[in-house]
Design brief:
single chain, 230 residues, alpha+beta, four-stranded antiparallel sheet, 3 helices, 13 strands, 19% helix
Length: 230
C-alpha cells in the first residue's frame, strides 16, 4: 500500500528520479545517529575561596576588638592630642615693648623659657664679633639641665653681670651666653627669631628648634628695626 501510494504521488507530481526522496537522502547524509559521540560536558570544579573561613573569623574578631578599644580609649586620646602648641615648644611672640634696649639688661621670657638679650655691635668683652641685635638664650644649662639665672651682681673676670648656673657654676657671658667657666660642654643654646613688621619678634622655642650654643652666639644676633645700634 505504501509503495502504491508513493508511486501514485510520484506519478501525480511527475518528479525526476534525482529529485525524489528526502533532502538528506539526496545529499547522501543518511539517517541521523541516535547517539551523540561528543563527550558530555561536566561543570568545572569550584576554585579555592579567596578568603578562608579561618581568616574571615580572625579578621572579624580583630576588627571587633579594635573597634571596642577605639571606643574605650578614643575619647582620652582625642583629649590628649595637642591641638595647638603654645608656650615652650612653639612660637612665642614678644612685643616690641618687652624687648630691651641694645646693651640693656637681659629680659626673662617665662613663657618661652629663654633670656632675651640685645647686643651692641662690635667686639664683645670676651672677644667675639657681632653686628648687634637680639638673641634668645635657652635658660637650660647644657651641662645637666639646671635653669641658668641672670646674676647682675656677680663679679667674675673683672666684669659684673653674668649668667651663672647654680648647680655647678658654669658661667656664661652677658653678650651672647658664651661659656667662660665651668663643666658645661658648650655655650648656652639659642632659639631662632622672626622679626615682624610692627617691630615685635617671634621666638621659635623647644628642643626641636634649639641651636647648639657656641662661641659664635653673638654672631647670631638679629638686628631689629627701630633701634639705634652703635
Amino acid at each position: 500500500m505504501a509503495g502504491m501510494a508513493e508511486e501514485q504521488q510520484d506519478v501525480g507530481l511527475n518528479l525526476a528520479p534525482e529529485a525524489r526522496g528526502t533532502m538528506a537522502e539526496r545529499r547522501g547524509l543518511g539517517p541521523r545517529p541516535t547517539e551523540v559521540s561528543t563527550p558530555v560536558a561536566t561543570p568545572a570544579r569550584a576554585g579555592k575561596p579567596l578568603i578562608s573561613r579561618r581568616v574571615f573569623v580572625l579578621g572579624g574578631f580583630w576588627t571587633a576588638l579594635g573597634l571596642a578599644l577605639l571606643g574605650i580609649f578614643g575619647p582620652q586620646l582625642d583629649f590628649l592630642y595637642p591641638r595647638r602648641v603654645r608656650g615652650f615648644g612653639g612660637p612665642v611672640p614678644v612685643p616690641k615693648s618687652a624687648i630691651p634696649e641694645p646693651g640693656g639688661e637681659p629680659v626673662r621670657i617665662f613663657e618661652g623659657r629663654f633670656w632675651l638679650v640685645h647686643l651692641q655691635p662690635g667686639v664683645t668683652p670676651n672677644g667675639e664679633e657681632t653686628q648687634g641685635g637680639v638673641l634668645a638664650l635657652w635658660w637650660k644649662c647644657p651641662h645637666l639641665g639646671c635653669t641658668v639665672p641672670w646674676r647682675p651682681d656677680f663679679v667674675f673676670m673683672g666684669r659684673k653681670g653674668w649668667f651663672r648656673c647654680p648647680c655647678h657654676g658654669s658661667t656664661y657671658t652677658k653678650e651672647g651666653g658664651v661659656l667662660v667657666f665651668g663643666p658645661a660642654p658648650r655655650s648656652m643654646d639659642t632659639f631662632p627669631i622672626e622679626v615682624k613688621e610692627d617691630g615685635s619678634i617671634v621666638v621659635l622655642t623647644g628642643p626641636n628648634n634649639a641651636r647648639m650654643g657656641g662661641k659664635d652666639n653673638p654672631a647670631r644676633a638679629v638686628r631689629l628695626p627701630g633701634f639705634q645700634y652703635g
